[in-house]
């Protein structure tokens, strides 16, 4: 049973009274959103481990899901093993989904605008406070948009495309070829607007002479940064645990139970080691990423699988995030179509040309990360541990990188081939309907790493102050109705109001 906390009287500049009501807080999901929520709850001025019991339940108990067996298992071993966030075997399963397999780009030009500035600032403060540069690879970086023409990989030639059994680029109405879009595509400008070349000198790991056709800077170290998402998420979990959060992995929540009058949350039911457990809960935060609608069907979040690779480069590559547009020539290995399974090692030569948009992030640990487009071939499995990797889709990215860079291609070493599910449709942050104590923090699209600290802080305020204080929720509030416009694109249109 939780005891009431003391009420502190503070100076004029501080709040006079702190929340003292005992709370049993359950966070569902050990991705970056759940772990940041746990961290910020424990750093809230009203938090007291005597009064507030916080439990984080994570369904998976392994990070091996969504990675091929030959992939590296612990990214900390790449960075300085003395200073990088250590692996805690009791936390295996934390960051097992997208939060461990994302790029890790942070930007003041991300969306939604209501929470981005707060989150970018919090990332910076966390890095300063805990040595995030060494612990989770935090650094300021550049972001650029590049147009390239890929070279053919060894063993492929344009003549092969004339033979039978070839892949076809589908022409679209304007005469160009169909593009498989990058994840952060909404930030990209039209090719016409790009300046011709003018690439900076330190971008020396791209084949500038042969491949680059256009370059434009998008973000600078003033407004752009990066983290290693798995190491960051792992650190947030560790820091939260040090202040009293109980982390339970291999614990899949199957129900959120309400009081008989339906007015408040009462408990959650979860399965662990084949047994069913019930955890009394006054405040339940659903941070289950793309799995959220399985617990809260009223929250319209979609899941789309995305593949990525990690390449060890022969030398440290300069700090750029590259939004690419790569023209694949006739005879290049055909990218796996969005709507069919890949054939690993058996890509057919392309007939015609095709544009692809992998995103590439140089990392300070001597690697580069790159991700490809989303697909919807395999439905979201039960847990992150069961995510299926389509090796051919990873090979597509590897061929494409090799077509524009020797460092990422023939001179690089592939360390990881992986897949995860991108939560689409949100973010949703706030109370769900009239049920007291039911909060959602999910659906963060391609900016969940960027927006996790603000989300965690705002959720901690909703629970311990009764309302968000550090930023306005704006369109993130599940009860809002809005249309979010980025550039000329409507990226989110909501009509979901309680
Ligand atoms: C390829 C790719 C690249 C990306 N790059 C970037 C980037 O550069 N910058 C950026 O800001 N964002 C990026 N993102 C987006 C970012 O990764 C996500 O928005 C973010 O990781 C979502 O975090 P989450 O905690 O909500 O979800 P997840 O990481 O999916 O975590 C949810 C967790 O909940 C657990 N769970 C689910 N159901 C239950 C249950 N019933 N009980 C208990 N636990 C449960 C799952 O096992 C999982 O561990 C990228 C995403 C992808 C796919």
CATH superfamily of the largest domain: FAD/NAD(P)-binding domain
Tertiary shape: globular
Overall average residue pLDDT: 87
Number of domains: 2
CATH topology of the largest domain: FAD/NAD(P)-binding domain
What is the CATH C-level name of the largest domain? Alpha Beta
Rg calculated over all Cα atoms: 23 Å
Question: What is the tally of beta strands?
Answer: 26
- SS class: alpha/beta
The end-to-end distance, rounded to whole angstroms, is: 34 Å
CATH architecture of the largest domain: 3-Layer(bba) Sandwich
Poorly predicted ranges: 1-18, 170-176, 190-194, 482-498
What fraction of the residues are assigned to beta strands by DSSP? 25-35%
Q: Number of DSSP helices? A: 8
Helix content: 10-25%
Biggest pleated sheet: 9 strands, mixed
List each distinct ligand once: flavin-adenine dinucleotide
């Amino acid at each position: 049973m939780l005891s009431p906390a003391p009420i502190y009287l503070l100076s004029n500049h501080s709040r006079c009274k702190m929340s003292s009501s005992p709370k049993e807080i359950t966070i569902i999901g050990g991705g970056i959103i759940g772990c940041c929520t746990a961290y910020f709850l424990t750093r809230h001025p009203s938090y007291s481990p005597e009064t507030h019991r916080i439990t984080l339940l994570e369904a998976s108990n392994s990070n091996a899901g969504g990675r091929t067996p030959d992939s590296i298992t612990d990214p900390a071993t790449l960075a300085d093993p003395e200073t990088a966030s250590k692996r805690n075997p009791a936390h295996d399963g934390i960051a097992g989904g997208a939060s461990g397999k994302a790029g890790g780009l942070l930007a003041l030009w991300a969306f939604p605008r209501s929470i981005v500035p707060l989150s970018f600032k919090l990332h910076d403060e966390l890095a300063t406070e805990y040595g995030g540069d060494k612990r989770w690879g935090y650094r300021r970086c550049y972001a650029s948009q590049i147009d390239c023409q890929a070279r053919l990989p060894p063993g492929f030639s344009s003549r092969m495309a004339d033979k039978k059994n070839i892949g076809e680029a589908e022409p679209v109405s304007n005469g160009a070829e169909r593009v498989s879009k990058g994840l952060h595509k909404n930030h990209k400008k039209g090719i016409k607007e790009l300046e011709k070349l003018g690439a900076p000198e330190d971008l020396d790991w791209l084949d500038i002479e042969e491949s680059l056709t256009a370059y434009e800077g998008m973000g600078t170290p003033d407004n752009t940064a990066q983290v290693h998402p798995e190491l960051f998420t792992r650190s947030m979990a560790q820091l939260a645990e040090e202040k009293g959060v109980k982390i339970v992995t291999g614990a899949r929540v199957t129900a959120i139970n309400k009081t008989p009058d339906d007015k408040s949350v009462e408990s959650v039911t979860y399965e662990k080691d084949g047994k069913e457990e019930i955890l009394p809960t006054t405040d339940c935060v659903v941070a289950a990423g793309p799995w959220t609608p399985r617990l809260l069907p009223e929250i319209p979040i979609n899941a789309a699988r995305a593949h990525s690779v990690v390449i060890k480069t022969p030398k440290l590559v300069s700090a750029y995030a590259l939004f690419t547009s790569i023209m694949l020539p006739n005879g290049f290995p055909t990218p796996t179509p969005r709507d069919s399974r890949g054939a690993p090692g058996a890509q057919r030569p392309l007939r015609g040309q095709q544009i692809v948009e992998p995103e590439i992030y140089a990392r300070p640990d001597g690697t580069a990360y790159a991700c490809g487009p989303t697909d919807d071939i395999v439905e979201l499995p039960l847990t992150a541990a069961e995510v299926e990797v389509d090796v051919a889709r990873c090979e597509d990215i590897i061929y494409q990188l090799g077509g524009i860079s020797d460092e990422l291609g023939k001179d690089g070493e592939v360390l990881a081939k992986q897949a995860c599910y991108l939560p689409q449709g949100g973010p949703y942050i706030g109370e769900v309907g009239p049920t007291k104590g039911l909060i959602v923090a999910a659906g963060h699209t391609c900016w969940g790493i960027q927006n996790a600290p603000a989300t965690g802080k705002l959720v901690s305020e909703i629970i311990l102050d009764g309302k968000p204080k550090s930023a306005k929720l704006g369109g993130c509030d599940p009860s809002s109705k809005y249309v979010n416009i980025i550039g000329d694109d409507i990226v989110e249109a909501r009509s979901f109001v309680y």
